[in-house]
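Here we describe the complex-level prediction in full. Unlike the single-chain runs in Section 2.1, the two entities below were treated as one system.
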Amino acid sequence: MIELIHLEKKYENATPLKDVNAVINDGDVISVIGPSGTGKSTLIRCINLLERPTGGKILLDGEEISAPSYPAEKARRKMGMVFQSFNLFGHLTVIENLMVPQVDILKRSKQEAYDTGVRLLNRVGLAGRELRYPDQLSGGQKQRVAIARTLAMDPEVILLDEPTSALDPTMVGEVQSVIRDLTGTGKTMMIVTHEMNFARAICNRVFYMDQGGIYEDGSPEQIFDNPQGELTKRFIKKLKIQEFDIDSTEFDFAAANAEIDKYCLQNDVPPRTKYRIRLAFEELVQQLLIPVLKRTAVHVTVEYSPVEKQATVTASYGGERFDPAEGGNELSYNVLKSSVEDLSYEYDLNEEKSNIVNLVIKESKYM
Amino acid sequence: MKLTKGRHLTACIAASVMVLFLALLLAGCGLQSKTITSPDQLNDPGVTIGVVTDTSDGMVVEKEFPKANIEYFRGEMNGFVSVSQGKIDAFVFSKITMNAAIRAGLKGVKILDEPVGEPNRGAVVISDAAKIPGLEDKVNEFIDEIKADGTLDDMKERWIVNADETMPDIKLPETSDIHLVVGTTGTNVPFTYYKGTELAGYDIELAYRFASWLGATIEFKVYDYDGIIAASDNGEIDCIFADFFITPERAEAVSFSQPTSIEEVGIMVRDGASAGTADSIRNSFERTFIRENRWKLFVSGIVTTLVITSLSVLLGTFLGFFVYMLCRKGNRFANKIAAFCIWLIQGMPVVVLLMIMYYVVFSGSGLSGASVSIIGFTLIFAAEVFNMLKGGTGAVDIGQTEAAYSLGYTDLEAFFRIVLPQAMPHFMPGYKAQITALMKATAVVGYLAVQDLTKMGDLVRSRTYEAFFPLIAVAIIYFILAAILKRIVGRIEIKVDPRQRPAGEILKGIEKHD
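The structure predicted for the assembly as a whole is:
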């Protein structure tokens, strides 16, 4: 059991953790989510004492590990840590990365360490790679070795600091499935992540961090479907709907594309659908609306529904009635029409932005 | 070693550069200068006359030949060779020494019959810090006695007139309360020079006779011209027996005995007739290495150079490592001190650092020149090791340390088990280069009365009056030593790189179950 009591971490220019209080029970699997810069990584690095808290206490099984006199290595031996950048020991082979710490710290025999190592490599699907060096592995394989190395030390608690953030999107899945497999072992886990669906699928508790503390602590159902706090609500809504306000031809479409990519990643949108969303967004806004509307503000929302397996792109704008089907760039309109499953236009004088274009992109069954 | 294409090319370039270098050297020997037959020709702005720094010869030349250019030399030997190679037109020095040089085989020079100026008076220099009380009076009393009984004349007859190089057997006590430490230069025939591996000469015999007269045991220390006065000033030696000429300037700084030799000053000029052909390599080799077992001098020089180099490398590595460990965690105090020391050590020429340590810091400590050299080079090497460690460990990602911490390693364990093995391959190439650089830098220890390879080369050169062969021989020996050191460190370099381990060793002794 880990207790965080009025935990504070102050740097010269910033205070990522102002007052953090929580009790982490044995067997809890906790996802830590929140906007960037809210101290998620700092929190788990503090728990592992890689960062020394500047105030408050951390109790591990009742012992105050944050006390300056408490030997950090003793606390860390009960906790494993998986890093965003893997941090495999570059001068050692895969099997040595697993064996050496066991021999050095747990004083196991080499044979015992080897047996444990091979068993764990099998478990993370890397049997036969024992004598490779880390730089001969892909990112996903490195992270799986890192997880196996952590497991080899038999930690009571496993801390994962954005374990898939540094990975190529194609490798996220393999690492996620290894982590998912871990949650079945009953070990206490704490994972900082941006992949919300993954977070929701594996955890029994979510910490939403904001304003220097744990702003909301609840079950995944509560946080994702029925958030209580104002900031949580805003964060979750933003996760589900991507919004843009475009008011000139100088709008940064490259940045907008990157935002769409990030949104798609967080919401598990399949790659093909992602490209179709980007194409539709570009054709509709950049080719059809902006050249005609000039400085009239266009509000665009992108939303993906995993249940219906479809994405909706809506553009709304004020001013006079303008239907892109009539008077817009004909070629772009045809491209757009053929690339989406449904395209509709409405004109509603009761709304402030009276023109509404709605696109629906459905996941093709051929995917 | 296999000659790959790239290596072959490098070897070719290296060989061409060497050939070019030698060609230039030989071209330098052939410089044409005026043929001088009488002193009157010397008073001319187109003439260059060489003299030894810190003698009264310079003043004589200025007075007698006001129009000529003067070039100063440290030690007469380089001046003689310059005349023979035509680099300068004439050299003014004591006739006895110049005659000895010609007897020893110096080619292409002759001595004009007419002397210049007043004769030089050679004498014993007595240190003001000598440990034997009343030493100056004793030296003078001794000289009076041997003058009176004819011993001094006999010595002059043998060493100077007849050029008889036999050192008489002089009885010295086995042990004594009085211990005489004599400084000498060892490069001035027939006064003080190496005959084989032993010191010999007029002044050396004089020193032995004086020690015997005193009932003292004797110890010789050999210095460069630049170091010997300083050594006398701070009491490293009791007196100097090296045919030092009495000049008004010197007399202000040191105490001279009454003269032990009166020497006419002569002029050495180039002599085309006696130049003949250059010595064959075989001849030079014989004179440099074989005659009088001079190879033994080289061997002892090599041993000294290697001992100083290897001890400095070992101690410097430990010291640099130790200081790095103190500074590693960013302790501001330790870092400031280390930075200051490194700034101090690296901020001045090696030779200045060594001289300061020998003549100021450790003066009167009784430490030998070799010990002080080792301490000095240890500091220099430690500074390098410190910087290399800083750079090498800095190149290892901080994530490696964090991962080690998170697995339960303590700070020191993480450093030794994880960080250091990865830093080693980063700094080993630099380390290797620094060892060779250090070995070459040790060539200055002659200033501290240490007879290393370079100094031994100088001693032999002062006997053979050849610039070319001993210098090239010394250079080649340095190349060979550097290659051997590089080989040894190269082995270590491979050993410490975890990535170079044979795959079979990694899982040695482990039972696999596939």
